[in-house]
Amino acid sequence: MKSELSETQLLAEIDLDRLPRHIAVIMDGNGRWARKRRLPRIAGHRAGIRAVRQAVEACARLGVPCLTLYAFSMENWKRPHSETKLLMALLREYLRKEINELNKQNIRLGAIGRIEELPRPVLRDLEVAEQKTGKNTGMRLTLALNYGARAELVDAIRAIADKMKDNGTLAIDEKSVSEHLYTRELPDPDLLIRTSGELRLSNFLLWQVAYSEIWVTETLWPDFTQRDLFQAIIDYQKRERRYGGLGLG
């Protein structure tokens, strides 16, 4: 159930000195949003882009250092070709249209996943967007594209094995695995948000979210607003993070 407080009231409840360093979001529910309105699925994906803009703007406004959005999984290629083609077109449209706004907000764009397997036009637009925002020093916005957490772990292990061949020996521990993940330049997420009420990780950041606080909302992604984001952060700030240790209670 959503809070009755206004966006301004919710914002006043947030302790800006205790913001999550990294928020990760599983954006789910575009298809259901469209189906409820008897619209084609692509209408849900377009509406989802508006929610992306709101989330990015809200995190940048608050001063959240890192935001990662699960934009396209490796499993999404199993969808009909017509849908994946439209999703790639929407991604290109987003990348081209949002560069000026990202620069205005001092946001640096990046991507994680098996990026090299994306269609060449998408890869080209992504490289341009990364280059044009590369000098920004504010929030780091990361899009998980052609991403799968199991594939990420496989790639990390392969990279470690290759170094072992070259160097003879290399310690295999949590630190070395973390240093070879796609997210090695980012802190692990403090807060993981999932929309549409689903209670699963969907092969997203399995290693990195080991101690993340998880916040699930029934809200479908296209209906997710800044108010929802503020509520998630407020809930996060009320929790006692234990990292496997004993709490005070």
The helix/strand class is: alpha/beta
Q: Kindly estimate the percentage of residues that lie in beta strands according to DSSP.
A: 5-15%
Question: Residue-averaged pLDDT, rounded?
Answer: 94
CATH topology: Undecaprenyl pyrophosphate synthetase
CATH architecture level-2 label: 3-Layer(aba) Sandwich
Please tally the helical runs, counting DSSP H or I stretches of 4 or more residues: 8
Give the helices and strands as they follow along the chain: HEHHEHEHEHHEEH
Main sheet properties: 6 strands, parallel
The Rg value, from CA coordinates, equals 19 Å
Could you estimate the helical fraction of the residues in percent? 40-55%
Q: Care to count the β-strands?
A: 6
CATH level-4 homologous superfamily: Decaprenyl diphosphate synthase-like
* Name of the CATH class: Alpha Beta
Task: Identify the overall geometry.
Answer: globular
How do the helices and strands line up, and which of them pair or pack?
Layout: H1 7-13, E1 22-26, H2 30-36, H3 41-62, E2 66-73, H4 81-104, E3 108-112, H5 120-133, E4 140-147, H6 149-167, H7 174-178, E5 191-194, E6 213-216, H8 226-238
Parallel strand pairs: 1-2, 1-5, 2-4, 3-4, 5-6
Structure description:
A six-stranded parallel beta sheet has the order 3-4-2-1-5-6, sandwiched between helices. By secondary structure, it is α/β, with parallel strands linked by helices. It contains eight helices and six strands. Helix 1 packs parallel to helix 8 and helix 2 (about 30-35) packs across helix 3. The radius of gyration is 19 Å and the shape is globular. The protein has a single domain, classed as Decaprenyl diphosphate synthase-like (Undecaprenyl pyrophosphate synthetase).
